[in-house]
Structure formats: structure tokens, C-alpha cells
Design goal:
The protein has 15 helices and four strands. It has 304 residues and is α+β, with helices and mostly antiparallel strands. It has a four-stranded antiparallel beta sheet, sandwiched between helices. A hairpin with a 2-residue loop joins strand 3 and strand 4. Helix 6 packs across helix 7 and helix 9 packs across helix 10. It is elongated and about 75 Å long. It starts with a helix and ends with a helix.
């Protein structure tokens, strides 16, 4: 059986190896574009997908960007203050979605997208108000913009605030939850993208993967594969890691987790049955491995 070997391996590469290219592929995907359009129509908010190390205002240039925020993004002094807020936000949102209030009283939200337990990007939204705007808020914003040497008229400030969406803390939590669910879909999309963009590899590696897939439910030892390929275990380990960026044992574990995910979709299969059918020798080992690779327990993954 020859299927998805390279794809699963590529999808499990450490994000830091190719995170910007991976995020760009996500941005260009129909999945993200359709969600972005639907999210904007539903909420009236801008949304953006940015790499983890993106050092610009994340929502600048996006549809529904607030007028004041657009002006700030074009001013170095004001933009610096905005980036400080964004840095604080993404530092707190490495593991779960968070919201912060910027110096102009607007709420920004970031939700992490993780692959193999590492954050590679964030879904950003915001430029919303936690309460209906007031005259004092307009005046406070005017003083702040003047400090930043931004020539923005009071009518434009009022227009910017009046047009901003108002979201209570409860509704903000709902937005975080919605983006979190979509972030999980994007994490899965990484696998699909890498399946479609499988790279050429030496026949030696292809044969090793074929052997692993054919014996996925059995005990697969390094010596067995090396013997099957008629090479030394040391040479096999070195070549396998060179071309897959993964140790043989890590690759084998991830392949089994991918198989387990498919089996878990059958509600009639118990978790312990799935564990053994996926090639794990014990339930505790299965639970630990699954959580390390997928970021959650098999039970939680099935429920979600």
C-alpha cells in the first residue's frame, strides 16, 4: 500500500522549518478565503492570517479595516504603539486565543494556529469596541492621535468609532471560540496541502515508507527496515532523517496517529481498540503519542 507517506511526513515537519511558506499556502487556500469572507459578512470585523513573526499591523489593508487604524498603520510613531499592543497580544496567545484593549480603547483578538504542538501563525481580528462609544472616548482618541502627530479631524474620529462594531466580553469569547474552531481546521489543512505538494524523494526513502505502511499494525523495528533495504541501520537512520527531517521512530508514531484519526471517526470503535489497530502496544503509550502529535487526547479529538 503506497499512500500519503510523504505527505504525512511533510505535514509533521517542525513548523519553524518552513512556516512562512506554509502560512502563505493557507492564505491562498479556498478554505481560508471562504471563511474570511463569511466571517466578515457575519461579524462586520476584519480578519487576517499572519505568520507568528509578522512585524506589521496584522489587519492593515484588510477589508473592513477601521479608518483610524488604517491611518495609524501609516504613521511610524503611532504604528510603533500599535505593534507593542500586538506583541503583547501574540505573546499571551501562544497556546489559546486572547484579547487585549489597545491605547485607543479598541479590542484586538489573536488565536494561534499550531502544527505538531508548535504555533506557526495567528488568526487576527479586532478593531471592535467593548462598549458603545462616548464623547469622552472621542476626545481621548483625539489627544492620543495629536501626541502621535497624526492630523485626524474630530469628525473622522467620531465616524471611525461610530462605525466600529460593539462586542461585549461575552460576544468576544464567542468570537475567540469561533476562530479557535477554524484554527483547528487550518492545522488539519496543513496536512492536506503537503499531501498535494509531495516532493520527489530517493527510492530508498519511498521503499522504507512502503514497508512502514505495509506493517503499520505490527512491531516495526529499525533493524527490520534496514534489513529489508539491505543497508546498515546507521546509514538508514542518517538518510531517513536527511530526507524527511524526522527520526524514524517519530515518523512511525505520526503515521500511526494519522491512522488512529481515521479509525476514531467510527463511533463503534472503542479507543483501546483503535490504539491496537493503529499499531500501538499499549493504551497509555497511544494516549501520550496522540496528544503529543495532535495536541489533544484521542477522546477529545473524537468528540470535537
Amino acid at each position: 500500500m503506497r499512500t500519503n507517506g510523504k505527505a504525512t511526513q511533510d505535514a509533521c515537519l517542525k513548523p519553524k522549518l518552513d512556516d512562512r511558506q506554509m502560512v502563505q499556502k493557507l492564505i491562498e487556500s479556498d478554505l481560508y478565503r471562504n471563511f474570511r469572507d463569511a466571517f466578515g459578512e457575519l461579524t462586520g470585523l476584519p480578519v487576517a492570517l499572519r505568520p507568528k513573526d509578522y512585524w506589521h499591523p496584522p489587519l492593515h489593508g484588510e477589508k473592513r479595516e477601521n479608518l483610524i487604524c488604517s491611518s495609524i498603520a501609516q504613521s511610524p510613531k503611532a504604528c510603533s504603539s500599535c505593534l507593542e499592543t500586538q506583541l503583547k497580544l501574540v505573546e499571551s496567545a501562544q497556546e489559546q486565543g486572547q484579547a487585549v484593549v489597545c491605547s485607543l480603547g479598541m479590542v484586538d483578538i489573536a488565536v494561534p494556529i499550531s502544527v505538531s504542538g508548535e504555533c506557526i501563525a495567528f488568526l487576527h481580528t479586532g478593531q471592535m469596541l467593548p462598549h458603545p462609544p462616548s464623547t469622552s472616548l472621542f476626545q481621548q482618541a483625539a489627544r492620543k492621535l495629536k501626541d502621535w502627530q497624526l492630523d485626524v479631524s474630530l469628525p473622522l474620529i467620531e465616524e471611525s468609532y461610530q462605525s466600529a462594531a460593539v462586542y461585549s466580553s461575552q460576544r468576544q469569547k464567542a468570537i475567540v471560540q469561533l476562530l479557535t474552531q477554524f484554527a483547528e481546521r487550518l492545522s488539519e489543512q496543513v496536512n492536506a496541502i503537503m499531501i498535494r505538494s509531495r516532493l520527489e524523494e530517493p527510492r530508498l526513502i519511498s521503499r522504507a515508507k512502503e514497508y512502514i505502511m505495509s506493517n503499520i499494525t505490527e512491531v516495526v523495528r529499525l533493524e527490520d527496515i534496514a534489513g529489508h533495504l539491505n543497508i546498515s541501520p546507521f546509514y538508514f537512520c542518517r538518510q531517513f532523517k536527511k530526507h524527511t527531517r524526522l527520526r524514524f521512530t517519530d515518523y512511525l508514531t505520526r503515521m500511526r496517529v494519522e491512522r488512529a484519526k481515521k479509525l476514531l471517526q467510527d463511533p463503534n470503535r472503542r479507543v483501546n481498540e483503535v490504539a491496537f489497530e493503529a499499531g500501538f502496544q499499549s493504551l497509555p503509550h497511544f494516549n501520550r503519542s496522540f496528544k503529543r502529535v495532535a495536541g489533544e487526547t484521542p477522546t477529545n479529538w473524537r468528540q470535537r
